[in-house]
Write a structure and sequence with these properties.
The chain contains eight helices and five strands; from the N terminus they run βαβααβααβααβα. By secondary structure, the chain is α/β, with parallel strands linked by helices. Bound molecules: ligand Z5A.
Length: 209
């Protein structure tokens, strides 16, 4: 049987890295084979593109270039990792996917959603996540948490207003697709965040059977 595609999203400092292991453990405890991956990245080519996107060497790249690089890396990721894994029956757990393009390049940079949707259809065909956990929290809290990191990358160097637009777009995406999204209140301490995640993943697994 084909596997399911689970994605985790959120603004800067939402706690994705802190929670991905936890999500993976929940799925594996349910007896599922899990392929864990991330975007941008997930393949050798994709990780090279990630370096271009996150580094400061091309700090002034055009917004369309940024979007197209995201989808270039994504095409490779789908062809080499995501589709083969799902077809073999594994579940794919991905740290960010196309919702991040809608939120960052759409909401953050102002690229029209229709343009992103055209790329989504082209690159993904019918592939969409089955479950998306959106870790949501006030931007100021996220930036405060992330501020403890050493060197900010090209995205982390953006201003608060940019992340406000990103957060708003994420919440709009979640409201438009309530069957796929579970919005997790990530402002709580880690244990309380993980209790919500456990509930959301448990509900998804129950619905499947
Ligand atoms: N991007 C894009 O623009 N378009 C696209 O299509 C895609 C991506 C796919 C890289 O993403 C960038 O790519 C991203 C968007 C763009 N840029 N930004 N911003 P990334 O996912 O690799 O990078 P990231 O957003 O910086 O995420 P991260 O480092 O993986 O994780 P995080 O969500 O920021 O959180 P964290 O590292 O787990 O936690 C941050 C800190 O908070 C850390 O000290 C934790 O210990 C602490 N923390 C976590 N949870 C809690 C709670 N509950 N209470 C208190 N403290 C906490």
């Amino acid at each position: 049987m084909r596997g399911k595609f689970v994605t985790v999203e959120g603004i800067e400092g939402a706690g994705k890295s802190s929670n991905l292991d936890f999500v993976q453990r929940l799925l594996e405890r349910a007896g599922l084979r899990v392929v864990r991956t991330r975007e941008p990245g997930g393949t050798e080519l994709g990780e090279s593109v990630r370096d271009l996107l996150l580094g400061h060497r091309h700090a002034g790249m055009a917004d369309d270039t940024e979007l197209l690089l995201m989808f270039g890396a994504r095409a490779e990721h789908i062809a080499r990792v995501i589709e083969p894994a799902l077809a073999s029956g594994s579940w794919v757990l991905c740290d960010r996917f196309t919702d991040a393009s809608y939120a960052y390049q759409g909401g953050g940079r102002g690229i029209p959603a229709a343009r992103i949707a055209a790329l989504e259809d082209w690159v993904q065909g019918p592939l969409r996540p089955d479950l998306t956990l959106l870790l949501d929290l006030p931007v100021a809290t996220g930036l405060q948490r992330a501020g403890k990191r050493s060197t900010p990358d090209r995205f982390e160097s953006e201003q608060q207003a940019f992340f406000e637009r990103v957060r708003t777009r994420y919440l709009e995406l979640a409201a438009a697709a309530p069957a796929r999204f579970r919005v997790i209140d990530a402002a709580y301490p880690l244990e309380a965040v993980q209790a919500q995640i456990q509930q959301a993943v448990g509900d998804f697994l129950d619905d499947r059977t």
